[in-house]
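To close the chapter, one final illustration. This time we ask the reader to focus less on the individual chains and more on the assembly as a whole: which components sit near each other, and how the overall shape emerges from the parts.
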Amino acid sequence: RMQSSRSKPCSCPSLKLREVASMYFTLVAAFLVILVVALQGSAPRQSDFPYKVPLDPQGLLELSWNVSYPEQAVHFQLLIRELHFGLLFGMSDRGEFENADLAVLWSDGHSSYFGDAWSDAKGQLHMDSQQDYQLLGARRAPEGLYLLFRRAFSTCDPKDYLIEDGTVHLIYGILEKPVHSLQAINVSALHGGLQRVQLLKPNISIPQLPRDMKSMEITAPDVVIPSQETTYWCYMAELPEGFPKHHIIMYEPVVTAGNEALVHHMEVFQCAADFDSFPRYNGPCDSKMKPERLNYCRHVLAAWAMGAQAFYYPEEAGLAFGGPGSSRYLRLEIHYHNPLVFKGRRDSSGIRLYYTATLRPYDAGIMELGLVYTPVMAIPPGEDSFILTGYCTDKCTQLALPSAGIRIFASQLHTHLAGRKVVTVLARHGRERQVVNADSHYSPHFQEIRMLKEVVAVFPGDELITTCTYNTEDRSRATVGGFGILEEMCVNYVHYYPQTQLELCKSAVDPGYLRRYFNLVNRFNDEEVCMCPQVSVPQQFYSIPWNTFNRDVLKSLYGFAPISVHCNKSSAVRFPGEWEKQPLPSITERLREPSPHCPPSAGAQPAAPVPLHLGQLRRD
Amino acid sequence: RMQSSRSKPCSCPSLKLREVASMYFTLVAAFLVILVVALQGSAPRQSDFPYKVPLDPQGLLELSWNVSYPEQAVHFQLLIRELHFGLLFGMSDRGEFENADLAVLWSDGHSSYFGDAWSDAKGQLHMDSQQDYQLLGARRAPEGLYLLFRRAFSTCDPKDYLIEDGTVHLIYGILEKPVHSLQAINVSALHGGLQRVQLLKPNISIPQLPRDMKSMEITAPDVVIPSQETTYWCYMAELPEGFPKHHIIMYEPVVTAGNEALVHHMEVFQCAADFDSFPRYNGPCDSKMKPERLNYCRHVLAAWAMGAQAFYYPEEAGLAFGGPGSSRYLRLEIHYHNPLVFKGRRDSSGIRLYYTATLRPYDAGIMELGLVYTPVMAIPPGEDSFILTGYCTDKCTQLALPSAGIRIFASQLHTHLAGRKVVTVLARHGRERQVVNADSHYSPHFQEIRMLKEVVAVFPGDELITTCTYNTEDRSRATVGGFGILEEMCVNYVHYYPQTQLELCKSAVDPGYLRRYFNLVNRFNDEEVCMCPQVSVPQQFYSIPWNTFNRDVLKSLYGFAPISVHCNKSSAVRFPGEWEKQPLPSITERLREPSPHCPPSAGAQPAAPVPLHLGQLRRD
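The assembled structure is written out below.
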């Protein structure tokens, strides 16, 4: 684990320096933090930086990091395999280079500097008045230059990115030419890109693994990665005939060496037990040659995305597979992301399942929370952040959960392309109690199963409220709910134990109230929205003239109208009871936004670049 | 002007200290800021603290202050005439003791301390982790103890109050018993109160005054202040017969010595020229004996409220009075605030008008912006911050303003009892350009005419948008627009030159669209809202069932429906043109919230109380 104490310069002069920040170029020499740059050194221990991800598609930049919850800080180790004249590394809301928070290493050809900077809405770089990316060291090794630096989750500097749970969009840019100052860097001309990671990995302890644990690899059979940017590859695998019930207790990625930057995410699905057999297949998922029946292989057994590590089930539970009533057929899906269109790359990546015949006390289950897939939940076009909410009501959990409750230990958030944020909150007696999972920088391109920091106990009578935020600024007609990629979903697949019959606890607005809305829009605006009963709900949404009143009233409708609740044993079988025109759960007490923990300002360094003794750059 | 440099302790130890704030009680002795307390001293010069206000009704606490715009800080001098065991002084959103930002002087009977504290939502006091009320000195004088301290406008500490333009609610509390620590102070048991002031007085230079300037006092004739909390006193005065046209170029308060804490505000109104004479009157404004005709004396000549200083017209303009077409009759109105119910206090306060016969280039005028007084603009009950907006449209200013434009130099905001915030913004070509006047802590009990920091130029085609925020949490039925004290207004009286014919530039929602709203509410909710045409708009509002949908849709209506514009020469005479069903001005660019200027943290002191050498307290 990195020690940050090394990095602290004398705080007294630095403090005074901050007051005269504008003069720093003349004064800085007196207060330099001279870094000892070891020109040779041993490779850092793997355990120091347990998480690793390539930043660029060629893997020239490789980021490793660890998370210190006691320090509320992330320690980064950035390996630069070919250093030219520096690089930018940082974070921004959705991976853009504007309004980004950046650590910059730059060289004028003679000297090199490191500094904390931010980019404004036009992409212009500025030195940050408070230096919160703290350089801890730089080290040359045969494989390249290692930069070590530290960043607190929250700096309380409004120019800085707040590192939160969920997705973080990392950005990088490579300086190909010398620059005389930070301000001279032209961000728009940089060779750069973005990488999504879950930076704040939960620090949960690894459960005890049993002695009789076995493993099974579900991997692609030496696939030639297609020379196109995006490929979803499908490969069918089978469990042995008569394979009895086991518990999957862990799984981990198997990524072919050299392809770390190409394998974007992988999932193993189990097929439906209704069919005796499934055809073999090994090819792109969108191929016309793909057998229709593969669409019935949708039950998630394992999911991995770039940057994720092994997934462990809690000690008390495992995911059942094998045995009677369970299909032998598995589908492996790999998303290859190949933006540089490499040709002829071969890949045998996949997922290694670890399982045991000694069944754990509980089967784990997966429950779907959020919105029903129905066009009655729609988003007007041109919205920058439109909110839809799905409810799992007290009535449903009262009926379907055991009195001892269930424990949610992992969650996978899901929307289609317009999704920007997803959050599920647990409420009890109308009071929000706990966030189940939240992602304020959610991307539909990065849907991992995430272990929760804390297991969430849900009891009969609790409510689970899932809220999705959408951006439809690039669309000209309404986006309705549905299965299509241009339709939308709002789903949280929660992984829990003990398994119950409740597979689906979701909602949608009452269709009768939506009809009243169409009527109201029609009358209020003197416009002809076709109300003929034979016209579909999507058609009615498409014909609405989207003025501010019609937008606002749709929001008001969704915040007021009763709901239809799907409290289902499977997608088609409801629990007995009245589920139509249910009242919206009323929340009387909201969770507070956590107030950011600001580091004492002594920890931050003044607004001056830190010179590095790297010698002449451009070594290639 | 106070020098703050004296107050800065060595910043190095204080910085380290902040890191170990929790240990401060043991460590503090090493880092004391020992204050030199002069036990005798000369009175401070008046000019050091030009603004003065009594805090309590007895005048035992007297606050003087100055404003340093270069330093972005206020320097306070608090005179405590009878010090017991300390006091609290501070600021909060609306004068409450919860969520307040406080400077506290307390004594355990032996030693005295000063510290920056905050109170939580339950009124519990906490030492602030950043000490932003900076003690500059303490001094005994024959009249009492003077405390001198400094506070930056903005500290960037989320626990601190942000000092903004407009009303500031000051609070004070007196410690009657010794306390052992700050945390031991029971805020709810304190003898305390609130005082409203405009803390950030504009620093505008005083215009040159002419040699022939004369003055005239309009003062109460030795009135016995009634022994009740609130009295509005009315006194009729007359200008001499044949008094020719003059320009009022300045006025100032005349407050009877000893009554500084009782005279809350005063206004001089000119009566309507339509009547040849007005009856004499000297008595309470709400008396049955008050002649009906006094209601026609409503044209404001001068207005003063506690804490305000002299009011100066700009050098180019004066307020016309006297001469043909102008009434000789004036009404002085004084609000006596006598919460301790003193008996037999005599008062001869009033306003001294300074005027000149040498007319200045321009007559000043007063224009009314905001909402028309009509019930169509209504606020649902139980709202904590409901917003209504009135528009002075481009079409009206195009028609009514001279091509050289007008200059607004002062403003008086006005609502009835539910008003909480008022702001007027100037927009040009749909872009917000400038705040004309804003008060985020507006109180209907503190309606001063305020000189603007900067004169605002308004040209033909500009829009003036006035937005009021209301709180109706204590009401059970809708609050409609109107003249009644329980009805509402949203008005900004702007003082400008050169005078034009435009007296009133206001708006209200189109009544036809409001009818559609009533219709829609009726149909959507399956409720019986009486739509019979003979039922008044207030009655229709009173019968609405106020669910979230009806509330939201009313907001949407006000944000969407066309408006009826009153672009009037006087309250009854419109400029020619079509003023019904006008489009709402569309604003494409909002003004940014100013980002607060945070002082370098070196300026603030660590979280430790500062001991004072005051000797044993309770000298009486």
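Residues 1-44, 601-606 of chain A have pLDDT under 50 and may be disordered. Chain A touches chain B at residues 11-12, 15-16, 18-19, 158, 516, 519-520, 523-524, 547-549, 552-553, 555-557, 559-561, 595, 600-602 (CB under 8 Å). With these observations in hand, you are ready for the problems at the end of the chapter.
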